[in-house]
Write a structure and sequence with these properties.
By secondary structure, the protein is mainly alpha-helical. Helix content is 52%, strand content 0%. Helix 2 packs antiparallel against helix 3 and helix 3 runs antiparallel to helix 4. The chain is flat and about 35 Å long.
């Protein structure tokens, strides 16, 4: 696997290419708070750029938001996802990274 992150096209352009109605700049809005607007990069952008599996993506999401949203509960979620990743390492690696 090439370790260089891949530049992804704008999600808005992708949705438009599918014929979806323009909902405005999806990257500029957030549903349910403002905890992801603390940084310049949205968690889903990180996941797309790095080609992360869904479980690793959730770890990124919760690690970035825990100080601003659910605190220890989000840390417990991170622990749960990491435990799943460890227990299913070979399957996830084969499915998403090879």
């Amino acid at each position: 696997m090439n370790d260089t992150p891949v530049a992804m096209p704008c999600l808005g352009d992708y949705y438009k290419s599918l014929g979806c109605e323009d909902q405005g700049d999806v990257m500029a809005r957030q549903v349910g708070g403002d905890h992801y607007h603390k940084g310049a990069i949205q968690p889903w952008t990180i996941g797309l750029e790095w080609g992360l599996d869904p479980w690793s993506m959730n770890v990124v999401k919760y690690i970035l938001r825990f100080p601003y949203k659910n605190g220890v509960e989000d840390l417990e979620k991170i622990k749960h996802y990491v435990e799943f990743l460890i227990e299913n390492y070979d399957t996830i690696k084969n499915e998403y990274y090879e």
